[in-house]
Specification:
Structural class of chain B: mainly alpha
Number of domains of chain B: 2
Number of helices of chain A: 4
Radius of gyration of chain A: 19 Å
Distance between the termini of chain A: 53 Å
Oligomer: heterodimer
Strand content of chain B: under 5%
Radius of gyration of chain B: 22 Å
Number of strands of chain A: 0
Shape of chain A: elongated
Number of domains of chain A: 1
Shape of chain B: globular
Helix content of chain B: over 70%
CATH topology of chain A: Helix Hairpins
Strand order of the largest sheet of chain B: 1-2
Largest sheet of chain A: none
CATH class of chain A: Mainly Alpha
Order of helices and strands of chain A: HHHH
Chain lengths: 112, 496
């Protein structure tokens, strides 16, 4: 299971790198989105995947899922959510002001 | 009594939250934020005094014992950084009262200013790697808003790059934390230090160490990841640029110094003397070459941030107590001087209406105080005795020669020379020569604007003249962080 997820994380990172290097504003934003998804999945996977038990440790429990990573990944997701919504608004403003969503055309305008 | 450690985080946070409620009332916002900034300064000095008596003060949040709960740790190094952040925070705030536009004041400038300080102070105090990530994000989100505030074409374009680069490095930070957690099973820094020592820092741990170095190098603007800095710091107005230039990159440097003295200190030959020293050399050289080639006041200063970040990291790379003490002293000197210079750039911009030094001239005649205060600070930046710049570069370069790191020490000397060159260039173009601004502009009073910078200029003189006790203080801080067992013992076993 860990191997499968690791391969998936690898694919996510590859796709996000491709998107980050593209010319469209929105694709770059999607690139960061996928990158943070990959990072979140990696945190969950790195602690070891456990099936069929809850992240609660009681005295008679013989197995449990690591609760710390779940707490961490929840925090990270919330942060990524906030930053993503910010950058979506930012890209919209850039599109409105510059009248383009092509990063190549944004470069070196004579407004400095 | 250890609850005191949390106050430098809580005070700006609560202030920021209260300020949101008064976002339309400029006067109320100014009164609240002014008092809060001064309160923070007093608090951080008291905390530094308290910590100096007690060695290391630890707060276990929610009374969860150390490796399980989040800890806030204040040692001497952290409290030095806290004092600096509150000094610069107060100075830039009072400068903002004079210069910031009404629109910014009414669009949540002050709340985000304090949220930024919350993140910065939290990053200095936390003793937990994941919590460090969270405070980094608090700081970064506030900085995204502050850097784009105003929404000009230039700002929008540059802050998009700034946000993307920082999001990318935050994702790398998460990945590094995930790897480190799977290797050691903990994210508490003291516990990490202990576990990594048990593992004797084998290959894979060093890989993660370099991974974390990359993350902090992006935030701290080290070679080759500094390219975002000069363009994005050019956009925002002077008080914000001064706060960013003085404080933000130094949070990355603080994290590097913290991680590479506390946790990853077992493979010094490779990580410190190899990678970090080489990076420091290139950072200094390319930063200063960038500054020499520019003719824009703010851009020159931004490139100098990069070159001086190199000195701090060089002190860590040499890794003797004197060199690390020099690095700490250099951070103190740099934060104060760099913020002051950015504020002077803001004041000259207000007078002449431009930041291009070729279009300025003769400011010395119309605004002599501004010119001479800039002159003192610029000399201090270049490292002329008896100002603070000299006494902070001196221990770093001397220990470079003592440790037979001749090349890096030579580079540092050359960079000091080029710094002097570009500072004199600014002075020559801006303050000397024929007056290029109009008579109306010459009548703009600079006195009120300069008032907040007076303490900063005074501090750089004091730090130079009273170098002995202040160097001793940085030496205490350096010895404390060079001996990680003090930190680890106080966090894991308690210091009752």
């Amino acid at each position: 299971m860990e191997i499968l997820i690791s391969v998936m994380i690898g694919v996510l990172f590859t796709v996000s790198t491709y998107l980050l290097l593209s010319r469209s504003l929105l694709r770059v934003v999607f690139g960061t989105l996928l990158l943070s998804h990959g990072a979140h999945l990696l945190i969950i996977t790195m602690a070891g995947l456990q099936r069929g038990v809850s992240p609660l440790l009681s005295l008679d429990a013989d197995a449990y899922t690591d609760p710390l990573v779940q707490a961490m990944v929840l925090t990270a997701i919330v942060i990524a959510f906030g930053v993503t919504s910010f950058i979506l608004v930012l890209s919209y403003r850039i599109y409105k002001v510059h009248q383009t969503d092509d990063l190549e055309e944004l470069r070196g305008s004579a407004d400095e | 009594m250890s609850n005191l450690v949390l106050l430098p985080v809580l005070l700006p946070f609560i202030t920021g939250a209260i300020l949101i409620l008064f976002y339309k009332k400029r006067r109320t916002q100014r009164v609240i934020s002014g008092f809060s900034a001064i309160g923070m300064l007093i608090l951080s000095i008291y905390l530094a005094y308290y910590v100096y008596q007690e060695s290391v003060v630890v707060l276990e949040v929610g009374n969860w014992p150390a490796p399980f709960g989040i800890v806030m740790v204040a040692d001497i190094f952290a409290t030095i950084m806290l004092i600096l952040s509150s000094i610069v925070g107060a100075a830039c705030l009072f400068f903002a009262f004079q210069t910031i536009s009404k629109e910014r004041e009414k669009t949540f400038f002050y709340p985000f200013y304090f949220f930024l300080l919350t993140g910065v102070n939290g990053a200095f105090l936390t003793g937990d790697l994941f919590n460090l990530f969270v405070f980094f994000e608090v700081m970064l989100i506030a900085s995204y808003v502050l850097i784009v505030m105003g929404g000009t074409k230039y700002q929008l374009r540059e802050s998009f790059k700034y946000v993307i680069i920082n999001m990318f490095s935050s994702a790398l930070f998460l990945i590094a934390i995930a790897y480190l957690y799977s290797i050691t099973g903990t994210v508490n820094m003291a516990h990490l230090g202990e576990r990594v020592a048990e593992l004797e820092q084998t290959g894979i741990v060093t890989v993660v160490a370099v991974f974390l170095l990359i993350v902090f190098a992006v935030k701290g603007a080290l070679f080759p990841l500094y390219f975002w800095l000069p363009r994005s710091y050019y956009g925002p107005p002077a008080p914000i640029a001064a706060l960013f230039g003085g404080l933000l990159t130094k949070v990355g440097i603080y994290a590097i110094i913290r991680m590479f003295t506390l946790v990853f200190n077992h493979d010094v030959a490779f990580t410190h003397k190899g990678i970090i020293t080489v990076l420091a050399g290139f950072t200094m050289l390319f930063g200063v070459l960038g500054a020499v080639s520019q003719f824009d006041f703010k851009r020159i200063l931004s490139y100098h941030i990069i070159s001086q970040v190199g000195y701090m990291v060089m002190g860590l790379g040499i890794y003797t107590p004197i060199a690390v003490a020099g690095a700490i002293y250099y951070i103190v000197h740099h934060i104060i001087v760099k913020s002051a210079l950015f504020l002077f750039a803001g004041a000259t911009e207000r007078i002449t209406g431009t930041t291009d030094i070729k279009q300025m001239g003769g400011v010395l005649k119309t605004h002599p105080y501004l010119a001479w205060m800039f002159f003192i600070t610029a000399l201090s930046l270049a490292g002329i005795p008896p100002l603070s710049g000299f006494f902070s570069k001196f221990p770093i370069i001397v220990s470079g020669f003592e440790e037979d790191q001749h090349i890096i020490a030579g580079v540092a000397l050359l960079v000091g020379f080029l710094t002097l060159f570009s500072m004199v260039k600014i002075f020559q173009y801006t303050f000397w020569g024929e007056q290029k601004h109009t008579e109306e502009q010459a009548k703009i009073p600079a006195g009120k604007m300069l008032l907040p910078t007076v303490p900063l200029v005074a501090l750089t003189i004091i730090l130079g003249l009273a170098a002995e006790p202040i160097f001793q203080y940085s030496m205490d801080a350096a010895q404390q962080i060079m001996d990680p067992s003090i930190y680890i013992e106080s966090v894991l076993r308690g210091n009752e």
